[in-house]
Design brief:
The chain is of the alpha+beta class. Helices cover 41% and strands 11% of the residues. It is built from eight helices and seven strands; from the N terminus they run αβββαβααβαββααα.
């Protein structure tokens, strides 16, 4: 049985028979993530993308239907695609071709990354246009110390030949600055990825404001930066910290927008 959603959230959607419970739970979580990114004001109209890798050796992943607002994404209308970006199940929608090279490259090469979020908010785009890019002198910027890879801008990310260069730029890190463009973050779960994105976004917001003010920054030592970075990475990796944060943000969103979200 398949039901048409009367509201954007998954509370009003019946799980289609061909989708197993594990995949459906992932779809619901990913739809929540799309709605949260919209709720936080980090969307770029119908552009940008969030993907979640499906269990199994084939590296299939879920991604948004191109042309829909993030508020219109539901568990049922998410696309299941292969590493070639082609749909694996019928859908009236297509995937955004700009997401193929970035997401498929990471999902294929990094078994430790199961979710990838790409954004280019105003603050992030401003930071990654600068040669210095992210500073590590504020509370959130310090948490990014040693965790960021940088990739030179080659134009709109459409072509498979850029994939190995993006992977080389990312290395073993979980944050990829796409210079003159935006950011991509990836972690082992949707909740962890969302929390990492939030940290990056807060760092960008604070840095853009600090850079607009007179006076020199109080610089943090490499030791303090590394301590902050290691502690945050440990909290994400070894605790339920990110899940608590994600669930709290979902509750906040639903309290403000209504339970249908």
């Amino acid at each position: 049985m398949t039901a048409t959603a009367s509201k954007p959230g998954h509370n009003s959607v019946v799980r289609p028979d061909h989708i197993g419970e594990e995949e459906w739970a992932l779809r619901c979580r990913l739809a929540d993530c799309y709605h949260l990114v919209d709720f936080m004001g980090w969307t770029e109209t119908i552009f940008n993308h969030i993907s979640a890798r499906l269990p199994g050796p084939a590296h299939h992943y879920l991604v948004n239907p191109f042309g829909l607002n993030y508020t219109e994404v539901t568990p049922a209308n998410l696309l299941k695609v292969g590493l070639d970006g082609e749909k694996l199940e019928p859908s009236p929608y297509d995937a955004n071709p700009a997401g193929f090279a970035l997401h498929s490259a990471i999902h294929e090469a990094r078994d430790d990354i199961h979710c990838v979020i790409h954004t280019h908010t105003t603050e992030v785009s401003a930071i990654v246009q600068k040669k210095q890019a992210f500073s590590h002198n504020d509370f959130y910027g310090a948490q990014l110390y040693g965790r960021v890879g940088y990739h030179a801008f080659e134009g709109i990310t459409l072509f498979a030949d850029e994939k190995p260069r993006m992977l080389e730029s990312l290395g073993d890190k979980h944050i990829l600055v796409l210079r003159n463009h935006g950011i991509a973050v990836g972690e082992s779960s949707i909740a962890k990825t969302f929390f990492l994105l939030w940290t990056v976004q807060r760092a960008a917001e604070i840095q853009t404001l600090a850079d607009s003010m007179r006076g020199e920054d109080v610089e943090l030592s490499a030791e303090v930066r590394q301590k902050c970075s290691d502690l945050t990475a440990m909290l994400i990796r070894d605790s339920g910290f990110a899940v608590k944060f994600f669930d709290a943000m979902v509750r906040k969103m639903r309290a403000e927008r209504g339970p249908g979200w």
